[in-house]
Design brief:
The protein is of the alpha/beta class. It has helices spanning about 15-40, 75, 90, 140-150, 170-180, 190-205, 220-230, 250-255, 260-265, 265-275, 280-290, 300-305, 330-340, 360-375, and strands spanning about 50-55, 90-100, 110-115, 125-130, 155, 210-220, 240, 315-320, 350-355. The protein is globular, with a radius of gyration of 22 Å.
């Protein structure tokens, strides 16, 4: 009897795409799970508390860990505003509150929210804004007001050891050193990401916010917070990190770590002494990152966490000459991101402004504004 040849069902393009998409989603879920495990690793179960809200008051004298205090940002003042809003100051609604994200003084998250009193029945898009090192949520007020004038609910927080969560001019620096010494907190990026996950819990409970339209952005340290929060939490639907995205492993391997290290030098200097070194070198840098932000220069670095944001709209804004975020260090993460955004290439873009170092510019502010309007309006 003649043996019949087996017929196999051809694999269609659609099924291949679905398989690739499922594989990508699985990798992303695994990364988020591992990252959440790291965030929880330095939190005692006994310190976990239900998320709660306390009403606050406006801060008349905000804490800046800089001397002299900053007074003006031309870039933020350039943010597009809705010019046709009559009596904007009268319409502006300000909320000051605290979210309790865990036990302890740093578990009290200060939040500032600006919006307008118009369209009370309509759910609106929201954007979270994150400040740079040594500043605070009040510094971001020009951005908050500009976005509020255009119909957004604009939110800012004080990151860990900043603003209302700081006691003096060295609070953040001291927290970094203590993290190296004790290994019990993660003041560089990760603990604030924990707060941003809790903030998303709160924002998605509000009836005035369209829960599918929550954006996140930040400058420098705030750009890193935005990047990692979006990688960890898919409720942040549109993402614009400004002068924050970099390759931590690449910087170590290519001797380009100095710009970032110099921004928080005290912790590296302390580590060098503890390790018996005459000065800061690549080994010191790697050990500090592993201690104060485990995985930052390995499994959670930009080549892995930037693609994990896809397919949500992601705009990376950097200076082409930024020593803290060297453009060469983004070759791999950007290449991998483009692969992960193949189905929706219009959802990903990198803009590196020529001739600009570690500086947020008016162009960056306007590009961010256009990106949010494109995807959230």
């Amino acid at each position: 009897m003649e043996e019949k040849s087996q017929q196999t069902k051809p694999i269609t393009t659609t099924s291949r795409e679905e398989e690739v998409e499922e594989a990508v989603t699985s990798v992303q879920k695994k990364l988020r799970s591992e990252f959440l495990e790291v965030l929880q690793s330095r939190r005692r179960k006994s310190h976990e508390v239900p998320l709660s809200v306390e009403i606050g008051k406006p801060i008349s004298d905000p804490m800046y860990q800089e001397s002299p205090r900053p007074t003006f940002s031309e870039a933020m003042e350039s943010c597009p505003k809705e010019e046709n809003v009559e009596n904007f100051k009268e319409l502006l609604k300000e909320e000051n509150l605290y979210l309790i994200t865990e036990e302890g003084e740093q578990g009290r998250l200060p939040v500032l929210i600006l919006s307008t009193n118009e369209n009370k029945e309509q759910k609106r898009p929201a954007i979270v804004f994150l400040h740079s090192t040594h500043k605070c949520k009040e510094w971001l007020r020009p951005l908050l007001e500009a976005y509020a004038s255009r119909g957004y609910i604009a939110i800012a927080i004080d990151s860990r050891y900043h603003g209302e969560r700081a006691k003096n001019l060295t609070t953040y620096r001291d927290a970094l050193v203590q993290s190296w010494k004790n290994g019990d907190t993660m003041p560089f990026i990760f603990d604030t990401v924990w707060d941003l996950i809790k903030l998303a819990d709160y924002l998605t409970q509000r009836e005035d916010i369209d829960h599918s339209k929550i954006g996140i952005t930040g400058e420098s340290l705030g750009g890193m917070h935005a990047w990692f929060a979006a990688a960890a939490d898919t409720r942040y639907a549109v993402v614009v990190p400004i002068i924050g995205v970099q390759g931590f492993r690449w910087a170590i391997d290519n001797n380009k770590w100095q710009g970032r290290v110099d921004s928080i030098k005290a912790v590296f200097a302390e580590a060098a002494l503890d390790l018996g070194k005459n000065g800061i070198d690549a080994e010191v840098v790697e050990k500090v990152w592993d201690r104060i932000a485990p995985g930052l220069a390995s499994q959670f670095d930009s080549p892995y966490t930037i693609p994990a944001i896809s397919p949500r709209p992601l705009l990376i804004l950097n200076g082409a000459e930024d020593p803290r975020c060297p453009l060469e260090g983004l070759d791999t993460p950007v290449s991998r991101a483009r692969d992960s955004y193949k189905a929706v290439p219009e959802n990903f873009e990198l803009i590196a402004q020529p001739g600009i170092g570690h500086q947020m510019t008016s162009l960056m502010v306007k590009e961010a504004s256009c990106w949010f309007d494109k995807f959230l309006k």
